Amino acid sequence: MALDKPYADIPGTTIFDADMARIGFHINQFSMSLMKAENRESFIADERAYLDEWPMTEDQKQAVLDRDYNRMMSLGGNVYFLAKIFSTDGISFQQAAASMTGMTQPEYAQMMLDGGRSPEGNRYKNEQGKGKV
Known about the structure:
- This protein is an all-alpha fold.
- The protein has one domain (18-127): Dioxygenase LigAB, LigA subunit (Protocatechuate 4,5-dioxygenase, Chain A).
- It is 54% helix and 0% strand.
- It has 9 helices and no strands.
- α2 packs parallel to α7 (79-88) and α8 (93-101) crosses α9 (105-113).
- The longest helix has 10 residues, at 79-88.
């Protein structure tokens, strides 16, 4: 990474910045290709063959095959682009977000209705235990 990034030490948080955009360029372009019906059909018919048309890393391709959205994000995927994958699978944004948090969809929906997740444990590592947010 090109610059010192103080935000890189927030537990459980992947920041999508210019470096991540560069790393994830092809996984994000693949995701966006799924906006076209013919591309969705090709992907559904043979996921591996369709992925092999893209110059993604093997780790990125495997994350897509595994539908491991957290891994895709750690490899440069942007959640708004990745939404095209879970939409292709017939999964709502809320269902996908729930899977990324380890919650069921009803648990996730209730957590959001209750005001979202607590910031406790999600501060910079050097700030944890210091006061309230």
